[in-house]
Amino acid sequence: FSKLRGRGVWRYSDAIAGEYRKIVTINEGGTPLIRSRQGNVYFKFEGANPTGSFKDRGMTVAISSAVNKGYKIVIAASTGNTAASAAAYSARAGLRIYLVLPKEKVAIGKLAQSILYGATILEVDGSFDVGMKAVMKLYREMGTVYPLNSFNPWRLEGQKTLAYEIAEEIGSPDVVLVPVGNAGNIYAIWKGFKELLESGVISKMPRMIGVQAEGASPIARAVINNLDEPTFTDNPETVATAIRIGRPVNWKKAIKAIKESKGTALYVSDNEILGAQRELARMEGIGAEPASAASYAGYKRALQAGLVDKDEIAVNVLTGHALKDPDSMIKSGARRIVVNPDYLGDIILGDLNADS
Ligand code: F0G
């Protein structure tokens, strides 16, 4: 790694496929790998990216690719984070962008970002999957509009750099836990590790563990029940709106990554997700949105189920920032007291008395 130039995602430009005359970057990647207070567990905090999620890693490559191919118009279906990221990178590149969003099911921070960056927002009745299908159909019919969803291979090229960063800092972990929605990211990260293994940089593959929300878990159920193909749903539901997806487009790739790495998949309840989000914040000082906290909820489940040993080095990928979804944070509940400003000390003294 010592000879590498560039920063963040583009530090690994030699490993990123494609030719780029011009790169559209907002200094994405290079996110902190935070060691847990408990030791063997690490958190890869993707909330530290320019728009607050891992999507920026893929978007810098996909938008650079769109610009180099001469596209002027781009489109993406999204549960919110792809939207915010695509809007920011399109703005920087001077492209016109359309976002297809599930009406009333996008966390307010993500919607607000998309508005701020100047995207045109097209809201559909129904889940992300309805928008995804419409975008794929549009791309077939109208080739002049460039799609930014994760079936776009350049997105995954950028996202794989997360593996490069982990390997550069701590080598190859034993397990990597990734929240799974449309299922591109787990594959991208696995691909990154596989390339590092093939070039001799690391000597073993981490087991990839995919974590889904119980109400949107076709891939986890397929892996657990050893099915050849997932049973999809048209009514996905979870508090983790980022991964509220019933028909993940990249399901084959995700299952390949999981199986070939000898990993597994599991699902967690909304209560476990919100509990993990609260624990990350209150025990570790890390603010992650619910979908991100799913990876940590999955880690705790995996420990209990004996799928991961407590002595193993585990990296939880925290895909997005807590600020993305203020409503979820408010649900964590706090002690809020209306006070007479002259008597703040009384509250603290009261607490100290109660302690002793
Ligand atoms: N975590 C967060 C915070 C996400 O926004 C997403 C996906 C995922 C995990 C799952 O990643 O789809 O590659 O399996 N969000 C997409 C979006 C669907 O539109 O922002 P995946």
Automatic annotation (TrEMBL):
Keywords: Amino-acid biosynthesis, Lyase, Pyridoxal phosphate, Threonine biosynthesis. The modification N6-(pyridoxal phosphate)lysine is found at residue 55. Gene3D superfamilies: 3.40.50.1100. Its EC number is 4.2.3.1. Its cofactor is pyridoxal 5'-phosphate. It is an enzyme of class 4 (lyase). There is a cross-link at residue 137 (Isoglutamyl lysine isopeptide (Lys-Gln) (interchain with Q-Cter in protein Pup)). Pyridoxal 5'-phosphate binds at residues 81, 181-185, 319. GO terms for molecular function: L-serine ammonia-lyase activity; pyridoxal phosphate binding; threonine deaminase activity; threonine synthase activity. InterPro entries: Ser/Thr_Dehydratase, Ser/Thr_deHydtase_PyrdxlP-BS, Thr_synthase-like, Thr_Synthase_bac/arc, TrpB-like_PALP, TrpB-like_PALP_sf. GO terms for biological process: isoleucine biosynthetic process; L-serine catabolic process; L-threonine catabolic process; threonine biosynthetic process. It comes from the Archaea. Pathway: Amino-acid biosynthesis; L-threonine biosynthesis; L-threonine from L-aspartate: step 5/5. Residues 25-320 form the Tryptophan synthase beta chain-like PALP domain. It catalyses: O-phospho-L-homoserine + H2O = L-threonine + phosphate. Catalyzes the gamma-elimination of phosphate from L-phosphohomoserine and the beta-addition of water to produce L-threonine. PANTHER family: L-THREONINE DEHYDRATASE CATABOLIC TDCB, THREONINE DEHYDRATASE, MITOCHONDRIAL-RELATED. Belongs to the threonine synthase family. This is Threonine synthase.
